[in-house]
Write a structure and sequence with these properties.
CATH architecture of the largest domain in chain A: 3-Layer(aba) Sandwich
CATH architecture of chain B: Orthogonal Bundle
CATH superfamily of the largest domain in chain A: P-loop containing nucleotide triphosphate hydrolases
Strand content of chain A: 25-35%
Low-confidence stretches of chain A: none
Number of helices of chain B: 16
Helix content of chain A: 25-40%
CATH class of the largest domain in chain A: Alpha Beta
Radius of gyration of chain A: 24 Å
Largest sheet of chain B: 2 strands, antiparallel
Number of strands of chain A: 24
Strand content of chain B: under 5%
Number of domains of chain A: 3
Distance between the termini of chain B: 27 Å
Number of strands of chain B: 4
Low-confidence stretches of chain B: none
Radius of gyration of chain B: 22 Å
Structural class of chain A: alpha/beta
Largest interface: A-B, 36 and 27 residues
Shape of chain A: globular
Strand order of the largest sheet of chain A: 6-9-10-3-11-12
Oligomer: heterodimer
Amino acid sequence: MNKNILEMRNITKTFPGVKALDNVNFQVEKGEIHCLVGENGAGKSTLMKVLSGVYPHGEYSGDIVLNGEVQKFQGISDSEKAGIAIIYQELALIPELPVYENIFLGHELTKGKMIDWNETIKRAGEMLKKVKLNNVNPATKIKDLGVGKQQLVEIAKALSKDVKLLILDEPTAALNEDDSQNLLMLLRELKEQGVTSIMISHKLKEVLAIADTVTVLRDGQTICSLSAVKGEISESIIIKHMVGREIDNIFPSRDKKDFGDIVLEVRDWHAYNPELGRDILNGLDFNVRKGEIVGIAGLMGAGRTELAHSIFGNPADYKIKGDLFVMGQKKKFKNPNDAIKAGIAYVTEDRKGNGLILIDDIKQNITIANLKSLTKQGIVNSNEEIKAANHYKSSLNIKAPSVEQKVGNLSGGNQQKVSLGKWLFVSPKVLILDEPTRGIDVGAKFEIYTLMNKLVDQGMSIIMISSELPEILGMSDRIYVVSGGKIAGELLSTEATQEKIMEMATN
Amino acid sequence: MGVLNEAKRLMKKNIREYGMYIALVVIMLTFSIATDGLFMSSRNISNLINQTGYIAVLAVGMTLILIIRHIDLSVGFVAGFLGAVAAILLTKTGAPVWATIMIVLASGALIGAIIGFLVTRMGIPSFVATLAGMLVFRGALLRVTSGTGTIIIPDKSFNAIGNGFIPDIVHINGIHTLTLIIGVIAIGLYIWSELNSRRDKLKYNFEVLSTLMFAIKLLFVSAVIAYITWTLSGYNGLSWTVIVVIIVVLIYNFVTNKTVLGRHIYAVGGNPDAAKLSGINVNRITLIVFSSMSMLAALSGILFTARLQSATTTAGTLFELDAIAAAYVGGVSAAGGVGKVTGSIIGAFVMASLINGMNLMGVDISYQYIIRGAVLVAAVIFDVKTRNKRS
């Protein structure tokens, strides 16, 4: 009797011009939690797409062996029948439908030809209990749940299909600390009940906490498989295998120095969101000085991104009260363009959603916020444009064949660098970074941290919003903790600890 | 071998664009053979181009509308209505031709601004706002023609816009010499601008086509321009309609490719949220694009009315769908953000060539519609497939 529930043997998958998977071998034992790690573009998601039938049999070479039998999935429905359920980073729930309908979407419970709604609601309630959502009414619409609960509903949906092998693609990427812990606890409980899980994650702390086995992929190849029982797993070992070199300190050091005058300040800053019908910011005061990195910590929903938006020309049309000063002068921004003109730049947290134009190429994305600087009598000088884009491509180390490459085809880390390049091209005084390293690999993170240090050395000011506490602690000179639309506390980097921040954030 | 490889690479990179030109050539050759050369005769080509004019200018405007992820269903009856307004201005008030044209174009721009206002400020989906516009202007057209029915326009210089040809200096052996001279100037300007841009690129040390490939390209495009002008000069020469279409295309092609406004239009279409956060005023861009669309609809109305030498009660019916089809055949993406003005013009000529060729062959009108539908689907399938391959 084979103790492996899953074996993927010599899987090779090529896209035009790229070998995404090169002879990958991957074994998962029955009943374990198996973490799959690797830098962006290492092939993790592709491997899981092969497994779940997104790339049908014949589009790859090699064998998928499930419970000792070779499988030839033609599509996701085949893999689901075999007991495999995959939960993607982008949730596949329908916001306008209630929880119970979402859970049984695609495999509705029927009586004759009709949907049995009563049974559906009853069973949905049972599934919700299994994922510790006892307080959620199955009739709640998905859009009224937080992201953390939505993730759990996804898992409930998978469980309702009688899943044997649960695959989670970066399940905690969008979750706050509490929700992440919840999710990990749930995975452990499911393990007790005999569900095998494969989890893709960038958060090594979580991997260390939960994994029985860790498989590392790099450049489409299996590098190694590490076992917890044998004590082979540690953060430094995983990182070493992921990047193929050792990184002693993930946060590059910087010479602390005296900071200059206050560059940006808001006082008694209120914002009301007419769509939600409530205040989202309730009287914040904060400032950033020349050459300083100010970290903004807080839980999801605390109002951090809303704060950034409200400063950056208020594109979502909140009703704003309060005073904003740039270099000591009172300002009022009617739109993002006003903010840009005043020397403020904002790198969004959602680079695919509202940061980049994915169908356009690197150069178009880098120059779009400051095309005027490339014009003569209203005509864009396309040669100067290529030159400018090439400058950022090399200085930010954007890996692409040319600046004519479509941004949608780049990896997350390179997309983030394009985002940064776009905003450096406007030569801002204050750079607001919203989750600057979300979903990108260790190597690219280090490059971005190094760049941040260089920028503040040159006199730029940086406001960094981040959910990753180590990053906040490692990079900031001063930290504001936001909670409930207010500043819950201010800490100098020398006095800050994870515990202090969490205490303020959850207050 | 180097040139062949380079040609292959160019072909691969620009398959969508070249595919359309090839399709046009194939259609033209097929009809020439099927009609014993009648299709490619000077007279027919001249006719074909003049017939397409009023759809071509609409397709140009529609390209921008579709790029920013909107649609405009009102353009047909806006064209019909404003054409009738032009007829009334000329016949009832005795306004001079130039003033009539100015008033009609300005009215078009104003109508577009109102539609743009409804879409941006009132938040009405463009499909609904322009569907309402279609109904309103259909009614308006019936209203202004209700007393008279068809309004005949006696003004010769106005009618020349749709029917007339540019004057000739000396007519030698039935050849329109001014047309030839313009053709030669066009070739000269084309070569001059290509040389200029190549020199500029070399100055920046950027990659350029190999000298041989560059020469082939220059020669090829020049030959095409020479052939078209030669064909046209064999009949009556360049028509005023062609001149108008060329000017519109030149302006819009320049604006979309070279100016900040054009780049902002593509950015809004590519990702409106990102465009907004990049400091682009999305509402302003939307307003401008709708305004330009309705102004071109006014121009289309002028061309059509002048061509018929009268304003009719049904003028403009289904123009909008012909324009949308031309844009899609011409490579505009249904998802927005992608498309070229020149492509839509070629799309308009592909569709017009089909109609013209099938008419010459005596194909029944029922089959004509079915074939046009099939070609539209085929063009978009080709677009989708080649787009996937490139990514």
